[in-house]
Specification:
Elements (H helix, E strand, L loop, with lengths): L5 E3 L2 H12 L20 E12 L4 E6 L4 E6 L9 E11 L2 E11 L2 E8 L1
């Protein structure tokens, strides 16, 4: 069996997504908040980038940003190896601080898998 190829997301795309997530809270001192706004819980998930991959051995493998390492995500077994897969990365934040990432996989425009780390 051959080693899987690992797709990677662009560091600049990840940085821009993090900047966008931080922007609403820039300059805010959360220690001085006297009233909690119930319409803004502070949680946000923002799309960073989508890349094209090819499946192999019923999975796709990716290098995750933010020091989360490398992972392989299983695919449904009815998809043949060599299938074109679109992998989209979103960054999860709380009050602009990154808390993890989610990867959503699409085949033919249809979502087939979603996995969040951590």
């Amino acid at each position: 069996m051959t080693e899987p190829e690992y797709g990677s997301f662009d560091d600049e795309a990840v940085s821009k997504a993090l900047e966008a997530a931080r922007a609403p809270y820039e300059g805010a001192d959360l220690r001085t908040v006297e009233k909690i706004n119930t319409t803004d819980s502070g949680g946000l998930e923002i799309r960073a980038q989508c890349i094209s991959l090819t499946s192999g051995n019923h999975k796709v493998c990716l290098n995750l940003p933010l020091g989360l390492g490398s992972i392989c995500i299983p695919l449904p077994f009815d998809l043949p190896d060599g299938t074109a897969v679109r992998a989209c990365l979103s960054i999860r934040t709380f009050w602009g601080i990154p808390t993890g990432v989610c990867v959503t996989l699409y085949v033919g425009g249809e979502q087939i898998v979603r996995k969040c780390f951590p």
